[in-house]
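Sample 3 of the quickstart, ligand adenosine-5'-triphosphate:
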Amino acid sequence: MGIDFKVVAAIFRKDMRTYLGNPTGYVFLTLFIAATAAAAYLTEEFFARNLADLATLNTWMPAVLMFFVPAITMNAWAEERRAGTDELLLTLPVRDTEVVLGKYLGVLGMYTLSLGLSTSHIVVLAMLGDPDPGLMFATYAGYWLMGALFAAVGLVGSMFTMNATVAFILGGLGCAGLVFTGPLPWGGGTLPWASAMLGIAIIGLSSALVYFAVVGRSQGTAFAGLAGGAIAAVVWLSMGRSAELGEPNPFEETFARLSVWDHFDSFGEGVLRLGDLVYYVGGVAALLYLCAFLLGRRHW
Amino acid sequence: MTDDDAKQRHDGDGKDEPVAEDEARDEDATSATSADDEADAKATDAADDDEPEVAEAARVEVAASAKAKAKADDDDAPAKTTDRSKRPVTISAEGLSKFYGQFAALSNVTFSVRRGTVAAFLGPNGAGKSTTMRILTGFLAPTKGKASVLGLDPTIAEQRRELAKKLGYLPESGPLYRDMTPFESLSFFADVRSLAKPTKRIEAVVDRCAIGSVLHKPIYKLSKGYRQRVGMAQALLHDPEVLILDEPTSGLDPLQIREVRELIRELGREKTLLLSTHILQEVEAMADEVVLISEGKIAFTGTKAKLTKDATVEQRFYELADKHQKEVA
Ligand SMILES: Nc1ncnc2c1ncn2[C@@H]1O[C@H](COP(=O)(O)OP(=O)(O)OP(=O)(O)O)[C@@H](O)[C@H]1O
Ligand SMILES: [Mg+2]
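Result:
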């Protein structure tokens, strides 16, 4: 099964034009620059440290992106469905994968543009001091990858509903799952239950997918998902006993590894690790596959 | 006059018309410049659309289409063989059923449309017309049964894609990208379809559907009728062999309705059309065949002549509705 990149490009261009042909697109860009600037400089820490780097922004970026990226993605598919244009688009000579890729590149394009404009922060740093170019590059590569992952999460949220607000909330929850599983840099330590929730959601969704792939029928897919989630919850709770003895819960530990923090820290230190790349690229691929699957749901 | 046209087509003299004719007529139409009474009427109508320069544009367009029509009338060569039943089947539905949960939107719907036929799909609200069309275009899959258009199965992804290249579809209430202008939309569709001569095709359908005056106005600012025309332009963009049109004349003014009817009759010479409608005169005016559907079940399929042998389409329609009401009671 091939992919016609002309189709992907046409959908990408259409969506970019919609984002930028709209005042909200520019409000969005401005807010993004303002929010990241606030996170980077408007903290006492930035001045106290007296270093020309983005360490303070690094601790806030996941939280900023957790809101901003779902705001870009919320309309990606939900709006097509609300307006009924999905019926036009999906009766054109296109493949579902081409639609998903075009849509994903559209939101990724908008995010990349926002992030690109926020490199103005580096210019500010260069005026204040002498930032390390390698470190800046690595940090921005980390931001980009994190946003790319969140964009895929948000797109999945947008596939579930024709209501943009619901899509935003679903996307935000998904991103929050990845953010809150890790050791939070804002104090409060870790939230083990957040890792568990993420694990239950992932296992539930995977069981639904596997069930559908094996059985080839839609009937019972939702049930398979719920059952998978329930089993995961039971596993988690049964393992939870040991936590009271001060031992980490293996279920929580496993899914805590999916935290974005774990896979972002080294970028913030100027190091690019293969494992982190695999995490982001693999995550995006898995989520886009899920999107294509959800798009096929109209045939159920 | 519309009735005459239809009859003429019915008793058609069997001469085959080359496909190229269509294009030639298009070009002829664009070069026309004189205005006439019709153009004036149309221009006044268009002027209501809150844009002064529209009037002038519409004048030229209507003149153009009037001339095209005159030419079409001269053409005494409806391309059909008298015996439509010998032509190959283009659209076929075999035992289609569609369930939404427990609710059967369609049950065991079977009909077929042969090449070069205009088939009207007629039935009360909620009868299942749109659902059937969505299945035929591959947007929805049937719960049971088999659909086939041009020999391709719309439930199989790659076949549906092949089919989409030869199929024009106007979904119900003409959904469109509201933030785009008609020109941007058509360019997008031309892009996705990788048309060989996009500019030429866009010009042709813009002319055909008389949307030249609103070409660069965002679609959300257009009146309902103009949106419907843009939807129609989209469906015709790639000069498809088969057209599935869900209420193509809804929201149009009387002049435009006449234009669309003429367009449909003209397209029906070469192409296969399935169109749904609530307007009974429309069936009289345009259709060769009629598919009557009610509450998800086929009530009649056959030629218009057969349907109207001992009653008008209208009487038939009410008969059907009454019958169903009795069944419910
Ligand atoms: N997504 C859906 N979920 C549940 N029921 C649906 C859905 N879509 C359509 N239906 C039902 O299926 C039936 C057929 O609908 P359809 O839109 O095909 O009718 P129609 O003949 O096109 O009617 P109209 O003339 O009003 O356009 C209706 O009763 C409708 O309520
Ligand atoms: Mg309908």
